[in-house]
Structure formats: C-alpha cells, structure tokens
Request: fold
Amino acid sequence: MYVLYPQKAKRILLKVNKWMQRNGHILMGIVIFLIGAYLIIVGLIRLGFI
Reply:
C-alpha cells in the first residue's frame, strides 16, 4: 500500500503511530497475559491437572 499510495499510507500510519503511543502498553500487556495464560494451560495439561 505504501508503494502505491504513499500520501494516503503516511496519513494512516501517522494515526496508527499516535494510537500505538497512547495505547501500546495496554496492547503489550494483553499480549503478554495471553502468552502467559497459554503457557500455564499447556503446562497444566502436560502435568495432568487438566
């Protein structure tokens, strides 16, 4: 998209960048939480608790 429409892509990416600067820590926290929950569930399954 950036190659075909550089001006439009730049405007979109600026908006995404602003949003990520404001909400990036929340998004990263959710990702880390999901990875942790997955690892705990897999570990409990392998240990035979689930």
